[in-house]
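Progress against Task 2.4 (sequence-to-structure conversion) is shown through the following example record, which the project officer requested during the mid-term review.
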Amino acid sequence: STRIVALETPCHTPGSLVLAIPKASSSRHSVEDELKTAEAILTGDTLFLGGVGAPFHGSDGLMWRSLQRISIFPDSCLVFPGHE
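Structure tokens generated for the chain above:
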């Protein structure tokens, strides 16, 4: 089975989420540890190919916090933006 972890990243849209697929493991880890080993993320309306979603429903500060939340993913993580 595949585990998917939802990470709230509001700003462009109020209910924006990033979905992360952590590396398969036989032992349980904290969610933060799972995010640090994510193999792939689906970024929805948070991160696009050419930039980030404009803060239609938030502030620049809220967008910055959302981007900080997704900075935990490893460089090897595959990124699938929501659209472009």
